[in-house]
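so the lab meeting is tmrw and i was supposed to have these ready like two days ago... anyway. pasting both below. for each one the top line is the aa sequence and the line under it is the structure tokens. i havent really looked at them closely yet so no promises
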Amino acid sequence: MMIDKSKIQKEAFYILNDLNDLSYESYICGGAIRDILLGKEIKDFDITTSATPEEVMDIFKGKYSVIPTGIDHGTVTVMVNKTPIEVTTFRNDGEYSDGRHPDSVEFIRNVKEDVNRRDFTINGLLYNGHDIIDHVGGLYDLNNKKIRAIGNADDRFRDDALRMMRCIRFSCQLGFNIVKSTIQSIERNAELITNVSQERIHDELIKILMSDKPSKGIGLLAKTNLLKYVLPELQSCVGFDQHNKYHRKNVFDHILKVLESTPNIMK
């Protein structure tokens, strides 16, 4: 698969090229590469690099506005022509005692180790300005329309339990299937979603409902045991017989059918 360079903001290339010219290993990373390969519109570009946050700030100081937006976790934002580009140092994460942020961060020089802490293979692709670098089988899963957690799925979801809902959301938005091992991990770890703030859960739920397959998403929430924590009112409808000769479906399946037939007026 080839990258269409015209789909990448020139501002991202400015940052990438400057870092590479100074011998810092650097890549455009994350969902942007996935979406370019899928022919989707991309709004945000992130860069991962071997340069430390302090080195990034020194490199671009005076040339662009540089904001230490998440410097403790290795992220600074470089403003290029009013376009924000997030630049994050390769890192290893410590324990996630709050289920969202690592208790400690170690900056490293090995990009493969950095990719291995990320969520899903299709989001683990890297682009150095010339070639796509794939350490986790992301291209295979992208070609086969699969969503798979990187490495041990239980570890990925324990690091950040919201990834379980993100997994379902990607399935709805992209029309991909979640592999069995990742589905089973969500089922095992569903209760961890109670550690996530209502605001973050709300945002993911809205994205599921606004996707092309909202009924699929709600169905997956039920299948993976997340529904009873996310929408407990709807959980009671699962399998509930309407005892009405005019309704062949149970209440939950009837709701999914209505949701499937409801037009998305926001598109």
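ok protien two:
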Amino acid sequence: MSKLNWPQFDKTLRDKGLKIFTPLELTRIFDVSYNTIRKFLFRYSKKNFITKLKNGLYILTNEKPSDFLIANKLYSPSYISLETALSYYHIIPESVYSITSLSTKATREFSALNIQFSYQKIKKSAFTGYLPIRVKENIILIAEPEKALVDYLYFVSLGKKKKNERMNLSKISKKKVLKYEKLFVYQPLDRLVKEIL
């Protein structure tokens, strides 16, 4: 395809259900050069048809995906956990305004679409216990309730977070909590989990 035009671009992305995209993906889909895509993205970002989330990551402005999907894509590999997952599962009563995830990469923060996305580093052996679930027609990766709890308590035991005293653990499987807690091999966490359970 020699000429890239907006109606065709918009329709193709919608047909493919591609909510978040990179320039490299677009060069493959439309069979055009990286330079052509770069200019196209720049032109339509200025017209506000396309929104840049960060360098190399874009969405259609009027097709905003779920915040959880954005969190998964902004920094990967990552999965949603900590306060965001605990709030999602109603384990803590508070609403959470920034979206917290875990990654095997360095701790980072991003601001996109007026939302704070924060990522805490976790060791590879503990980077598990998350599920793909459907949110607003998107598949997103989020910790199981028990793993979100253990992840959170791990950062509490490190002194990086303050323990929430209003947690509702009525639907939590103690067996699963103990299984996930073993992944960290960290005695202060071990003590904290025993105290809470």
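from a quick look at the 2nd one: DSSP finds eight helices and nine strands in the chain. The longest helix spans residues 34-46. will dig more after coffe
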